Every structure is written in C-alpha cells, then in structure tokens.
C-alpha cells in the first residue's frame, strides 16, 4: 500500500490527495505535526497588492479554459486537480474573485461534484484548512 507523508495541513499535497481519492487508489496517510513556528502576521498586509493583480491572472485561466469542461481537453487530467486547488484557495482568500469568470466557477463546481471528490470532502480525512504552515504569510485558519 502506498504511504503518503506530508504535514498536517492542506499545502502542496492537496491535489495529490484529491487525485488518489478520485482514482480509488488505496493509500495510508502519515501526517506530520508542524512545530510552533513564528506566525509572521503579514498576510493581510500583502493581501491587497496580490488581489489587485488576481483578475488579470484569472482572466488568462478563463480564456485558456474557454468552453471546455477540463483544462487539457475532454477528460480530466492532473492539471485539473492543480487548477481546482489553486482556484479553491483563491476563492477562500477572496470569495468574490471568480464572480466575473463563469467558466471558472462552473469548473470549480464540476470538480467538486465528481462523486469520488464529493464523497471525500465529506470525510474527516479531508483537509480544507489550514492551507499553509504558521510561518506562511497566509494560512487561512
């Protein structure tokens, strides 16, 4: 059986967890507890300038997705797992960020509606937050 080892946060491993659940791959998760890191508290200070540039980036993703269901074609690929995670994190950072991009909203909803993903999101194994460790600028606890 595969062992997936990562911190006890969502982090960079989230899309891998989603992929394993989607494919029905049996795995054991080893979660490592993060230590008492210093919380920088600079997240709110950096949030404004970051969010000012976000619509331009999202517009590029929206244009690339176009009218397709998935980013690389007719079938879901690992790229979709990465894009979902990125869009979901940005949606938590700013719940209005996808409002102007209907196709990105639809993609986000379509991904969460996949039966294996929807079922996983209802389990205690699913990690919505924290996204990052304490020392990150933004952890969304």
The residue ranges in which pLDDT falls below 50 over 5 or more consecutive positions are: none
- Supply the number of structural domains: 1
Using only C-alpha atoms, the radius of gyration works out to: 16 Å
- The CATH architecture name reads Up-down Bundle
Helix count, per DSSP? Answer: 5
Q: Supply the CATH class.
A: Mainly Alpha
Write down how many β-strands occur, each being a DSSP E stretch of 2 or more residues.
2
N-to-C CA distance: 31 Å
Helices and strands, in order, run as: EHEHHHH
Beta-strand content estimate: 5-15%
Overview of the molecule:
Its EC number is 2.5.1.18. It holds the Pfam family GST_C_3. It catalyses: RX + glutathione = an S-substituted glutathione + a halide anion + H(+). The chain is mainly α. The chain has one domain (2-121): Glutathione S-transferase Yfyf (Class Pi), Chain A, domain 2 (Up-down Bundle), CATH 1.20.1050. 48% of the residues lie in helices and 9% in strands. It has helices at residues 14-23, 43-65, 78-93, 102-113, 115-121; strands at residues 2-7, 27-32. The protein has a two-stranded parallel ribbon with strand order 1-2. Strand 1 (2-7), helix 1 and strand 2 form a beta-alpha-beta unit. The longest helix is centred in the middle third of the chain and has 23 residues, at 43-65. The mean pLDDT is 89.
